[in-house]
Amino acid sequence: METDSQSHVYSTMRLFAPRERYPQETRVALTPPAVEQLTRLGLGVTVEVGLGASLGIDDASYLRSGATIGQSADEADIVVRLRPPPLDEIRTQRPGSVAVGFFEPFFQPELVRAMTEAGLSALCMELIPRTTLAQKMDALSSQASLAGYAAVIVAAERIDKVLPMMTTPAGTITPARVFVIGAGVAGLQAIATARRLGARVEAFDTRPAAQEQIASLGAKPLVIDLGATGEAKGGYAQALTPEQLMQQRQAMAKSCAAADIVITTAQVFGKRAPLLVTAAMVAGMRPGSVIVDLAAGSGGNVEGIVPDEECLVSGVKLIGLSNLPGKVARDASQLYANNVVSLLTHLWDPAAKGLRFDLNDEITSGTLLVHGGQIRHDGVRSLVEGS
Ligand code: NAD
Fold it and tell me: Are residue 315 and residue 369 in the same domain, yes or no?
């Protein structure tokens, strides 16, 4: 690989996609159509033996798309993954090579340090700017959208009633009540899915702009006057003060008690998810009702939630699946692979037949977490230095 330190041009030819190491991960980082697009771009693509096995995609399908089948990332210039890799795998990547994937940089300082020490350039999917131009690359959105859908499907399967109103000779069934907390990408998709299934939906978000979006999907926005809640850079929510959180919980207790299904999706970027549904609020719900907590993997919005388990608390089913997009792994993999192809296409320099890291470009600069032996994101750098 040739590197021109002035303009950061990487004559990058070989890309490797290893199998995901995370237990129970059903998604894959590259699908055969994505391989086709990357080879058309000029990359030599190798995928690990059995990459698509969890989706029923055999090695022959990857071969037909133009990939070769290999075993290790040692020779690769770019390694594309979905989940953060184990540290020992990062250490086998060649210095100067590029790592692409979700790296959970705020929660895995050791990994960020290891990528810096290994001399890698890390393109971190979580850091892709939430802008119109970057929409095609926005893997947080593509996966959150499917998680929101899957959360409702899981809840519908676990609840003891139907979601739509049904009028039958034996009597009329009232529609299920669904309360969605957090109306970002996942929450809005959960609202839309629950509405399509005929439920009566109420939702709350701290960002005032979300109220109109909730209403446009046919749901009722819950209005709570919390004073200034603001919006952080990139449209993300600000963390609330302890007093605001207490006020929010009190105001939401009635909506939780009236709901058959509560779906929680609240996140504050780079921080532990806020605790929004207390044990007392759970106890106030009807036995048999269901809570699905999409934030279970980052601390949980619900007291007592256990990641990847279903617990019965006060007769309420608490479901903390941390890999909801994995429930619809085929579609999730297709969208993630498309996100990766769009990102690499954006960075591709046809003349140099390689990646160009133009640090004046907002997408490149924002996404490049580690480069030239430096951690480029201020928040992550302080976290790693302080760990
Ligand atoms: P996220 O996953 O960071 O958080 C989920 C939701 O939780 C957010 O809507 C947030 O406001 C909400 N939240 C945080 N604290 C809460 C609390 N105490 N109570 C209730 N809700 C709470 O958010 P996201 O889905 O990644 O979206 C983040 C922002 O980025 C949104 O403004 C979204 O519209 C925007 N966005 C823009 C684009 C684009 O322009 N291309 C793409 C995707 C998202």
Answer: no
Q: Which one from 113, 130, 272, 330 is the annotated catalytic residue?
A: 130
Q: What is the CATH number of the domain that holds 183?
A: 3.40.50.720
pLDDT confidence tier of residue 106, bands split at 50, 70 and 90: very high
41 shares its domain with 186: no
Instruction: Indicate if 121 belongs to the active site.
Output: no
The boundaries of the domain holding residue 93 are 7-138+329-386
Specify which residues 99 forms β-bridges with: 79, 122
**pLDDT over 70, % of the chain:** 97
Chain segment 276-303, per-residue pLDDT in tens: 999 999 999 999 999 999 999 899 999 9
Same domain, 301 and 336: no
**Number of domains composing the chain:** 2
- Per DSSP, the three-state class of 226 is coil
**pLDDT tens-digit map of 148-167:** 999 999 999 999 999 999 99
Q: Which long-range contacts (CB under 8 A, 24 or more apart) does 285-288 make?
A: 285/256, 285/257, 285/259, 285/314, 285/316, 286/257, 286/260, 286/315, 286/316, 287/314, 287/315, 287/316, 288/159, 288/160, 288/315, 288/316, 288/317
Find out whether 178 and 200 touch, Cβ atoms under 8 Å.
Answer: yes
Does one domain contain both 94 and 120? yes
User: Of the residues 180, 181, 205, 264, which should be mutated to test ligand 1's pocket, given the most ligand atoms within 8 Å of the CB?
Assistant: 205
274 Cβ closer than 6 Å to some ligand 1 atom? yes
Lowest mean pLDDT among 69-83, 141-155, 246-260: 69-83
**What CA–CA distance (Å, rounded) separates 340 from 326?**
17
- Residue 204 Cβ inside 6 Å of ligand 1? The answer reads yes
CB 261 within 8 A of CB 289: yes
Indicate whether 252 and 134 sit together in one domain. Answer: no
Residue 153 lies in a domain: no
Ligand 1 in reach of 266 Cβ (< 6 A): yes
- Is 113 a member of any domain? yes
**Atom 2 of ligand 1 has which residue's CA nearest to it?**
267
Q: Which of 289, 322, 355 is the last residue of a domain?
A: 322
